[in-house]
Design a protein that fits this description.
The structure holds two protein chains of two kinds.
Chain A lengths: L1 H25 L3 E6 L5 H18 L3 E6 L2 H9 L5 E4 L1 H11 L2 E7 L5 E9 L14 E4 L6 H13 L4 H4 L1 E4 L3 H9 L5 E5 L9 H4 L2 E11 L2 E4 L5 H13 L4 H7 L6 E4 L6 H10 L2
Helix pairs in contact in A: 2-9, 2-10, 3-4, 5-11
Chain B lengths: L2 H56 L3 H10 L6 E8 L4 E4 L17 E4 L3 E10 L2 E11 L1 H36 L1 H11 L9 H5 L4 H61 L6 H25 L7 E4 H18 L2 E7 L5 E4 L1 H19 L3 E9 L3 E8 L27 H11 L3 E6 L3 E8 L14
Parallel strand pairs in B: 7-9
Antiparallel strand pairs in B: 1-2, 1-5, 3-4, 4-5, 6-8, 9-10, 10-12, 11-12
Helix pairs in contact in B: 1-2, 1-3, 6-7, 8-9, 9-10
Classes of the chains: A alpha/beta, B alpha+beta.
Chain lengths: 283, 461
């Protein structure tokens, strides 16, 4: 009798898997939108290997869609052109406000799902704190499209009563690494970047040339977010698959190109700190 | 060196020099074109990089600069592409290690060659008239060198092939071109052979340039034949001369002695009964003397005394002298003088002996009954005298030889009469020849003496 019960469970389990697999296969693929200013093959490649692995693990086919900026990404999701979106913190908050989307996972870099932004100056610079920045040349990343390179520094400046439009000469360099280089080369007086890029071995040369004068609080990283109407079980499967990536070699290998260490469960409360900064930004 | 070898050697040498010259010019020209092309490309690439990097440089978009630079990686010959700012710091470079460093030597906005095989082109990046940086493109000239080397290799191959082909063609055509010359040489080499025939050469149709040479060879050959003939005659005559002097000395003297002795014997009349023998001795001495006279005539031949002679009178005199002889032999002497008195300048005795000799030969040839016709004509410059007889004639094959000394068909002839006659006529700038169809005809041609002083006394009368 005992054996019979065991066999019954086994058969049921097999049956469940078979039905589950068939039902998944019957489903259509879902799409993930990411941003890329210019169509960068490297970015596509780094995402593709992750998505392939996640698809394999979750049984859900995921197609990659590339949008030129975050605002476009939000529009695509509103129009149901994409099912999932990879939003940086500020745009997650915006998307959440507009579309009530559901965060699934957020990326981990250097082992942490949090990061800090900060202001850097050349190591020989006389600038000691934020108030010294007045009248100086400041390098930011992209106008209105970057959390730590735009919204965050402006919010921090606002908190210190510095108006970036009136008190500073701002240059938008497109990328954090460009800001780092600009400061390192002495082409600008200061820059605002996400600080984890300083840890990158490739940027060592530049990071040795700079000094940090201000740091933000810890912010959650970018989240993969599902549209409001995406079914919970799909979200669960995907979350499970993403979370499992850092548990084995194949998963780690798939993330190698992207610079991600893994993924952590994402929830809306994590982004409250971003909302606080956004309030300061809008001041 | 044979003509053929010479032809091949010189043609090939000229060909080689020309071809090397042409090849050199072509390669130099090609190199210039390639050089120009690479310089143009350098400028184009530097300008393009400057153009696409302008805005990125302005806002310090280094990643874009790097991307721009990297996009030049696939360009042919590009070994380095750099973007520097005004401080000389390398903001982006194909060699990523250089990024952030300062360039060692600042290049002006121009092109320069480095290490002989690198072309460095730099172009300022200018926004609103302000220089904000510079692009530096380094192109390798390796492709250019490869192309040039390829060209040189091809040239050498083509040159060698053309060289061999030309040598082969000349080798074949030389035989054809030189054929007239080799033929000529072949024919000329055979001249000493006895069966040589000049008609072989005459039948050839040489090229225009060699016609002269062919004609010259033919002319020289014919001239040589004449010279050879006259040389033989001269040698024979010289021998005759020497012989006659010898004879004169060795025979005449004993003959004189014998003749004297016979006279003495006659005078003493001691041997009256033997008078018949003395007569025989005298007659034989006379015969010998006559024979010697003929020789001596020849020996004296060189001493001429030229005077104005009326040829008609001369012929009349001779015919009168020989009348008795012709009558005896029942020979009719026909005189057909189609001209009046005509003069020549000559030695009257010599001329007389010529005509006498010929008429006597005719009389001898006729033997019994026949005719001898002496015909005189003239034209503007010459008197033409034909002496014709219907005697036994001369064989055709002998015609050539009858004027040779010592040639005779007669049993008792010395064979020098006609040769002396020919010598005399030629001394008078005339010509003598013999023809034989049915009758034998001696044709004598003598230049007319053109001094119109008819009043001069006829020396012949």
């Amino acid at each position: 009798m005992k054996y019979l019960k065991k066999y019954l469970y086994l058969v049921l389990l097999i049956l469940f898997f078979i039905i589950f697999t068939i039902s998944i296969q019957a489903e259509e693929f879902i799409t993930l939108g990411v941003t890329s200013k210019k169509i960068a093959l490297s970015k596509l490649e780094s995402w593709q290997s992750i998505l392939d692995e996640v698809s394999k693990r979750s049984g859900i086919d995921i197609e990659l869609v590339v949008a030129k900026d975050h605002q476009t990404l939000i529009d695509l999701m509103r129009n149901k052109k994409i099912d999932l979106g990879y939003f940086s913190p500020v745009f997650y908050v915006k998307a959440r406000n507009e579309l009530n989307c559901k965060p699934i996972v957020l990326e981990k870099r250097l082992g942490s799902p949090y990061y800090r932004g900060g202001f850097i100056v050349h190591k020989n610079s006389k600038i000691k704190n934020l108030t010294d920045l007045k009248g100086k040349k400041l390098a930011l990343t992209a106008k209105r499209d970057s959390t730590s390179g735009y919204y965050l520094p402006i919010a921090i400046l606002n908190r210190n009563n510095i108006n970036y439009k009136d008190d500073l000469n701002v240059v938008y360099t497109g990328k954090h690494i460009n800001v780092l280089k600009s400061v390192s080369y002495g082409l600008v007086d200061a820059g605002a970047i996400k600080l984890f890029i300083l840890e990158d071995e490739l940027n060592k040369e530049h990071s040795s040339q700079i000094r940090i004068i201000a740091k933000s609080s810890y912010l959650p990283t970018s989240s993969i977010t599902a549209r409001e109407d995406i079914k919970k079980d799909i979200i669960n499967k995907l979350r499970k698959a993403f979370l499992s990536l850092d548990t084995d070699q194949e998963g780690l290998k798939a993330m190698q190109k992207s610079g991600f260490d893994g993924f952590a469960v994402s929830n809306d409360q994590m982004y409250d700190i971003v909302r606080e900064y956004l309030v300061d930004y809008s001041k | 060196m044979s003509l053929k070898k010479r032809l091949i050697t010189y043609t090939m040498l000229i060909f080689l020099i020309i071809m090397i010259l042409v090849a050199y010019v072509l390669i130099v020209q090609q190199k210039d074109i390639f050089q120009e092309e690479i310089e143009r490309r350098g400028v184009l690439l530097a300008r393009t990089l400057a153009e696409i990097s302008k805005e990125a440089l302005l806002v310090h978009e280094f990643s874009t600069l790097s991307k721009n630079v990297t996009s030049f990686n696939s360009e042919q010959d590009v070994v380095e592409a750099k973007i520097i700012n005004n401080n000389g710091r390398i903001l982006a470079a194909l060699n990523r290690d250089l990024e952030g460093k300062f360039i060692e030597n600042s290049f002006e906005e121009k092109q320069s060659y480095l290490d002989d095989d690198k072309l460095i082109t730099s172009k300022d990046i200018i926004i609103d008239g302000e220089v904000i940086g510079r692009t530096i493109i380094t192109l390798s000239q390796q492709t250019l060198k490869d192309k040039i080397n390829y060209s040189i290799r091809m040239m050498i191959i083509i040159l060698a092939a053309a060289f061999l082909l030309l040598a082969f063609i000349i080798h074949i055509t030389a035989d054809y071109i030189l054929k007239p010359i080799t033929n000529l040489a072949k024919i000329v080499r055979k001249i000493p052979e006895s069966d040589f025939n000049i008609s072989k050469l005459k039948s050839k149709n040489p090229p225009l340039e060699l016609k002269e040479l062919y004609n010259s060879v033919i002319w020289m050959y014919e001239e040589m034949l004449i010279i050879r003939k006259s040389l033989i005659e001269k040698t024979q005559l010289a021998t005759l001369g020497k012989m006659s002097a010898y004879l004169a000395h060795e025979i005449r003297n004993p003959l004189e002695a014998i003749s004297g002795a016979v006279e003495v014997i006659k005078l003493k009349k001691e041997l009256n009964s033997q008078n018949g023998f003395l007569k025989i001795i005298n007659e034989e001495i006379d015969t010998l003397n006559n024979f010697l006279d003929e020789f001596l005539n020849f020996a004296r031949i060189k001493s001429y005394k030229f005077k104005k002679i009326d040829i008609i009178n001369l012929l009349n005199d001779i015919s009168k002298l020989l009348e008795a002889m012709t009558d005896n032999n029942n020979i009719t002497l026909i005189k057909e003088f189609n001209t009046k008195h005509k003069y020549i300048k000559g030695d009257i005795n010599k001329m007389k002996s010529v005509f006498t000799n010929i008429i006597l030969n005719s009389i001898e040839a006729i033997k019994k009954s026949g005719y001898i016709k002496i015909k005189v004509d003239d034209n503007e410059n010459y008197i033409l005298i034909n002496i014709e007889d219907n005697g036994c004639g001369i064989k055709n094959e002998d015609l050539d030889k009858i004027f040779n000394p010592f040639f005779t068909t007669k049993k008792s002839g010395s064979g020098i009469g006609l040769s002396i006659s020919k010598e005399i006529i030629e001394k008078h700038k005339g010509k003598i020849e013999a023809n034989t169809d049915n009758n034998t005809v001696f044709k004598i041609k003598l230049p007319i003496y053109k001094d119109d002083s008819n009043n001069e006394k006829d020396t012949n009368s």
